[in-house]
């Protein structure tokens, strides 16, 4: 059943009821609403809320009757103001309602496991989880992690949160069903946001990859020791998975030089993908061809290569920021023949 205002009031007595009631009443033309000043949630607040939701979800997996944590009413109140102009979609209230539906087993939409609608920047099937919470190898990347930029979009944050919960579930059935439903011969990216957080999760993904050899799967990771742990189990790596060693991890420290050397030799590794600091921003464009033809491309390309050289890298391939058409045959990060580092400016 779809959650409505009527059964919400009997399902969970929370402050969220007031925000949802305000939204419904306002949308119906009622002026008798309590207006709460909206606030913008910061990264710390969102991560704290996410951790509370994950704890509640895992407790319910253990059979405990733990309710969904309350979203601060001030976040939901953005819907009250947007409702006056008919803009219900894209609000924290709407996104929390979807989370509520999923958490309690009601029908829901908009929290699919894989983003498959595609765009000109990433036209592949893609999986995301929460950054930082699932990133055991994080290092300097925490200062420039682009995944946190998605937190400004309620729908993106909730998808990352729900997928993180799904990874914590007993059998991960929702993820398995979605993965097995991916059309044949598709390209899949694991992960866009977040990372492999333990050996059990990596083994799970690799078992899925082996069951769908028609799929072309690639990813970026800073969880290097977990990949080495998998190698130590003696299991074969999937032949349809390509790993890019993501820069900015804790393993950039010289004390981890041996780990970097060992993980670089794994048969699934294409090479490194690094983000460098430059004073020149990537040119705008809807395709890689358009970006490379822009007046500023050569300056940007040289700035990225120079920055990579200062970090000790030799020849590099400069990413134009459009995954689907960055090269003629296949995208660079999924091309095992391209073994040199791929570099992009911090964005």
3D structure, described in words:
The chain is α/β, with parallel strands linked by helices and 347 residues long. The chain has three domains: 5-103, no CATH class; 112-256, no CATH class; 268-347, no CATH class. The protein contains 13 helices and eight strands. The protein has helices at residues 5-11, 16-27, 43-61, 73-76, 78-83, 92-103, 154-168, 173-180, 199-211, 224-232, 257-264, 288-292, 297-310; strands spanning 114-115, 125-127, 187-190, 216-221, 241-246, 269-276, 317-318, 342-345. Strands 1-2-3-4-5-6-8-7 form an eight-stranded mixed sheet. α6 packs parallel to α7 (154-168) and α10 packs across α11. It is globular.
Q: Top keywords for this entry?
A:
single chain, 347 residues, alpha/beta, 3 domains, 8-stranded mixed beta sheet, 13 helices, 38% helix, globular
- Rounded mean pLDDT is 83
User: How many beta-strand segments?
Assistant: 8
- What structural class is derived from the secondary structure elements? alpha/beta
What radius of gyration results from the CA coordinates? 22 Å
Helix content: 25-40%
Unreliable residue stretches: 1-15
Strand order of the largest sheet: 1-2-3-4-5-6-8-7
| Total count of domains | 3
Question: What is the overall silhouette?
Answer: globular
The count of helical stretches stands at: 13
Condensed summary:
The chain has 347 residues and is α/β, with parallel strands linked by helices. 38% of the residues lie in helices and 10% in strands. It has helices spanning 5-11, 16-27, 43-61, 73-76, 78-83, 92-103, 154-168, 173-180, 199-211, 224-232, 257-264, 288-292, 297-310; strands at 114-115, 125-127, 187-190, 216-221, 241-246, 269-276, 317-318, 342-345.
């Amino acid at each position: 059943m779809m959650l409505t205002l009527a059964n919400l009031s009997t399902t969970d007595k929370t402050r969220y009821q007031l925000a949802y009631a305000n939204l419904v009443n306002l949308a119906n033309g009622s002026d008798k609403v309590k207006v709460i000043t909206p606030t913008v949630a910061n990264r710390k607040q969102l991560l704290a809320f996410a951790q509370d939701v994950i704890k509640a979800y895992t407790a319910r997996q253990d059979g405990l009757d733990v309710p969904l944590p309350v979203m601060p009413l001030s976040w939901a109140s953005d819907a009250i103001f947007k409702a006056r102009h008919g803009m219900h979609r894209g609000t924290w209230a709407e996104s929390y309602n979807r989370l509520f539906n999923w958490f309690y087993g009601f029908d829901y939409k908009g929290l699919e496991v894989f983003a498959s609608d595609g765009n000109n920047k990433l036209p592949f099937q893609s999986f995301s989880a929460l950054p930082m919470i699932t990133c055991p190898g994080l290092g300097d990347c925490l200062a420039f992690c682009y995944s946190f930029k998605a937190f400004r979009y309620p729908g993106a944050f909730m998808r990352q949160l729900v997928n993180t919960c799904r990874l914590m579930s007993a059998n991960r059935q929702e993820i398995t069903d979605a993965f097995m439903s991916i059309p044949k011969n598709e390209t899949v990216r694991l992960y866009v946001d977040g990372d492999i957080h333990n050996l059990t999760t990596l083994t799970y993904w690799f078992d899925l990859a082996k069951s769908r050899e028609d799929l072309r799967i690639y990813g970026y990771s800073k969880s290097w020791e977990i990949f080495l742990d998998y190698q130590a189990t003696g299991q074969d790596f999937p032949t349809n998975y390509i790993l890019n060693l993501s820069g900015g991890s804790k393993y950039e420290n010289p004390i981890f030089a041996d780990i970097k050397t060992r993980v670089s030799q794994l048969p699934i590794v294409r090479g490194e993908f690094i983000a460098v600091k430059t004073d020149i921003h990537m040119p705008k464009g809807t395709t890689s061809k358009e970006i490379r033809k822009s007046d500023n491309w050569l300056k940007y390309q040289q700035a990225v290569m120079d920055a990579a050289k200062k970090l000790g890298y030799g020849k590099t391939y400069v990413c134009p920021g459009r995954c689907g058409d960055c090269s003629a045959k296949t995208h660079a990060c999924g091309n095992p023949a391209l073994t040199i580092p791929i570099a992009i400016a911090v964005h």
